[in-house]
Design brief:
The complex is a heterodimer of chains A (287) and B (219). With 287 residues, chain A is of the alpha/beta class. Chain A is built from ten helices and twelve strands. In chain B, the strands form three sheets. A six-stranded antiparallel β-sheet of chain B has the order 4-3-6-1-2-5, with helices on one face. In chain B, strands 9-8-7-10-11-14 form a six-stranded mixed β-sheet, with helices on both faces. Chain B starts with a strand and ends with a strand. The chains are: A alpha/beta (287), B alpha/beta (219).
């Protein structure tokens, strides 16, 4: 079972030891042009999670491509590049530039950043454009804020996606307790942390029923038990996001906890537990 | 980058603030101006705190209970334990000839440690009330001003200034002492460069304060 970081939740060049404790490093989303990101204040803790409005701060794809070889040297694990853009053409251009780069194991298309204006095309149209631009595996990262997520998942599958990353943050707002003005300068932000877990579980569950694509499950994973639940709902890999902010040792801890959880239920491996929430004929045995 | 679970040795109220003393565990004290991420029990994110004092085997943090996280930290009792990550960021450069420590409010937090390392140089501390100013006892050789008097009204020239305090104070100090070393503050989720939450404008660009700072040279 692969353990990843959520895109934008780890800088492997600043904290290489944390990255190396994962199986795959996912980059911060790369856009065609450099972006400084949104004006501060950019983050706020809430009762059961946090909001962020970073705004896809990144050095731009030219700079990224120049530093990719060094990133590979530092992390020593497979790299997935998160690709963003403001039109299908921009996404496809970046995918084309990544095509054939040995350092890149997969591309994750960020189709769901809640903190920037969206591309006008649908998720499926962007995936289709990228499919014709690269032979690299394409994972579509989707927002849970969709009426019928399984329908979107089927559409990106038909457009040529190789997998799904579920879920991105969901839009939220917090107000300063004294002024009653939005805490974040941008107003709203992406909500993550423990409160996101039931939303992620529902998304993974629905998409695992509705498609045959492998799913990277993410959203509020703080423990091995949380990871197990995403696997049971249908995820074949799990990514850590907000928990990395609170605990850089989380990859090692959660992997160990997952092993204990699987063992206690009589599963031989995470693959053995995958999708059991979907199956009426399988009952986990608690020893 | 080390993280350890540290036992609370003591928690003493000093005027408006609390001095929370922790066992040091396997962590290094770092240099003055560096900070640690302190787990705030029951909260989603840890809180960044600069080290206030570092006697052998201990790390002490001066904390202002202004929000849900700091209130939990100020209520810690001896025997409880919290996870602590650090030291993080860049502290003060201590190779200065004529140091003057300048602090405002809870911004005095790193100055006792600076003072100890520099052999008790002169300090100038500003507070909003006599109650808040009780914490000045932690900094030897300090002159204290209370609002409506500001530190910049009492600041002598010709010193190597090391300052920490609210943003308007740091801006005013910078105007008087362009070479001052200033310790800034920003909301932080992680403290180690992962979240990009603590962006501040440095040289016309938004950069992560936890990576570039929190101590920045003015100008």
């Amino acid at each position: 079972m692969l353990l990843l970081n959520g895109s934008g939740c780890l800088d492997a060049l600043v904290a290489p030891d944390v990255a190396r404790a994962l199986d795959v490093f996912v980059t911060k989303t790369i856009t065609p042009q450099p972006r400084g990101g949104n004006a501060p204040v950019r983050i706020a803790e809430t009762g059961h999670g946090m909001l962020n409005a970073i705004g896809l701060a990144n050095p731009g794809r030219d700079h990224f491509l120049q530093t990719l070889a060094r990133l590979q040297e530092v992390v020593q694990i497979p790299i997935w590049v998160s690709v963003g853009g403001f039109s299908a053409e921009q996404y496809a251009e970046t995918c084309h530039l990544l095509d054939g780069r040995d350092e890149v194991a997969s591309i994750e298309l960020n189709l769901s950043c809640p903190n920037v204006d969206e591309a006008p095309e649908s998720a499926a149209e962007i995936v289709a454009a990228c499919r014709s631009a690269t032979d690299l595996p394409l994972y579509a990262k989707l927002s849970p804020a969709t009426w019928d997520l399984a329908e979107t998942a089927r559409a990106v599958e038909a457009a040529g996606a190789d997998g799904l990353s579920l879920v991105n943050t969901i839009r939220g707002l917090s107000l300063d307790e004294r002024t009653l003005r939005p805490t974040l300068e941008r107003g709203s932000g992406g909500y993550s942390g423990p409160a996101l877990k039931p939303i992620a579980l529902a998304a993974v569950y629905a998409c695992a029923r509705g498609t045959t694509l492998p799913i990277v499950g993410m959203g509020g994973v703080y423990s091995g038990r949380d990871a197990l639940e995403l696997i049971a709902a249908g995820a074949s890999a799990v990514a850590l996001g907000t928990v990395l902010f609170a605990d850089p040792d989380a990859p090692t801890r959660i992997r160990a906890e997952l092993g204990v959880e699987l063992d206690a239920r009589g599963f031989e491996s995470a693959d053995d537990a995958r999708g059991v929430a979907q199956r009426a004929d399988v009952h986990a045995n608690v020893r | 980058m080390k993280r350890d679970r540290l036992r609370v040795l003591g928690n003493e109220q000093i005027g408006a603030y609390f001095l929370v003393r922790l066992e040091r565990g396997v962590l290094d004290a770092g240099v003055p101006g560096q900070f640690f991420m302190l787990q705030a029990p029951g909260r989603v994110l840890p809180r960044p705190m600069s080290v206030c004092l570092a006697p052998p085997g201990e790390l002490a943090f001066l904390i202002d209970p202004i929000g849900p996280g700091t209130r939990v930290l100020c209520a810690l009792e001896p025997g409880e334990a919290i996870h602590v990550l650090g030291p993080l960021g860049n502290g003060f450069r201590l190779d200065v000839e004529r140091p003057l420590l300048v602090g405002g409010g809870i911004g005095i937090a790193p100055l006792p440690f600076v003072s100890e390392r520099l052999g008790s140089p002169p300090a100038l501390l500003g507070f909003r009330s006599e109650w808040h100013a009780e914490a000045a006892a932690l900094v030897p050789n300090a002159e204290v001003v209370i609002e409506p008097t500001y530190v910049t009204e009492a600041m002598p020239t010709g010193h190597d200034v090391l300052a920490c305090g609210p943003e308007p104070m740091l801006e005013a100090v910078r105007a008087l002492a362009p070479d001052a070393q200033l310790a800034w503050e920003a909301p932080m989720a992680c403290g180690y460069g992962a979240c990009y939450g603590c962006a501040v404008e440095i040289g016309g660009e938004l950069k992560r304060l936890c990576v570039e700072g929190p101590v920045l040279v003015a100008a």
